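Researcher: First entry.
Model:
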Amino acid sequence: MPPALCLLAALCVGLSKSGFPGVSLVTVALMAEAFPARQSTGILLPLLIIGDLCAVHAFRQHTLWQQIARMLPPTILGIVAGFFLMRSLPDASFRPLLGWMLLSTVLLQGVRTVFPEFGGRIPNSIAFAWAMGIWAGVSTMVANAAGPIMAVYFIALALPKENLIGTSAWLFLIINVFKLPFSASLGLLQMPSLLLDLSLAPLVLVGNIIGKRLIRRIPQRAFETILLLSATAAAIKLIL
């Protein structure tokens, strides 16, 4: 029977893909508490893909494929860089690195929560797209924590909310599937972890259903503020 932290993390994956992006950072922290930090990234990846499939199904009609084509090259480059970083980094150093990556994205998500239009005045340039794409690629490979980075980029383009969610859904599905062979090469995808993911998959679907109902009933800013404080505490614990 999976530990309670795993059950909660799977629910959080579903919540994050239903319109609560800040929950994804808590998911990373929960899995890093339940397992060794490096191993946790591989266990989480298949669950994220299941959540991405839910999001794609719900928002597929709002996808802007030209934006996906623009962001894929720098993001893939960042994933490859993150792979070599993970391969060369000793286990003792990975836990604090994961903490710092998580803390940086928590801070970015926190700014977005307080200032929803943050990023809207950033120039729409190729250099900005590549910088954000590479940062997102490294973050998603090392820590599965690229959501707030991509959100800031798409807000800078002034995308309507539906297009932002639909484009992000397909983009994350593509890059998470792309990460599979890299995670397998690092030994992070093994039969025991895949069986665990299989047992947790229904909870991702449950979390997605709960999230769709909650988003209409509770103030999203207050909810995500609590989650961000929790993720910040977890990040600091990983660093220390």
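Researcher: Second entry.
Model:
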Amino acid sequence: MAQLAALKPAQTVSHDRFAIELGHVRKSHGTSEVYTDLHFQLLRGTFVAMVGPIGSGKTTMINMFAGLERPDAGTIFVQGQDITKMDDDSLAAYRGKTVGLVPQVQTLIPELTAYENVELPLYFAKVDRDARRRRVDEVMARVGIRGEADRVVGTLSVGERQMVSFARALVSDPPILLLDEPTEALDPLMSEVVLGLLRGDNMTLGKTIFVTTHDRRVTALARRTLRVGKKIP
């Protein structure tokens, strides 16, 4: 079972102060218990890094916050909403508005261009075409991949695909960013771009950032670090 160091139990207070709150969360994979009776709260606008060995439940945590995995028991409030009570359609709408996800395993559509992949969240949100174009152009330029807009994703390098995924996470301007090892596949130059974006989005735009990482440069930016002390058996 994974253990998180230096976490205090959640207090009984208004949900309005917190971006994410876990109460009595239990999660297992098969016969392996990942988390048991887990409590913690993340203030809105904070930058939290989670570190620990492979197989310790970091990606599971990201997936629970994104509503891609459900806990076996307990509650998860995100921006005041109990996402454990949402059905699949409500969770899809929640992901579209509330969280920007950069997964460790890419979920881009390889047959589409970089531009089309970044545009998808806005398309599904029924944003009009001109507004979509302005927003996608802005975000791709900000991430530094505007020159790759017309390239089919399947032809991009691993690092370039990661940057497309990052742009897609930002395009809807969500209040929370969830990033699973965001710098792992990047060269030093692209890593610096991501670090600059993380620094700016948290400190300037006030987004809540939760990131799993082994990168000390990322943990140096974080205001709080959660350490998973044991690998799942």
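Model: Note on the second entry: The beta strands are 4-5, 18-29, 32-43, 47-51, 73-78, 81-82, 99-102, 176-180, 208-212, 224-228.
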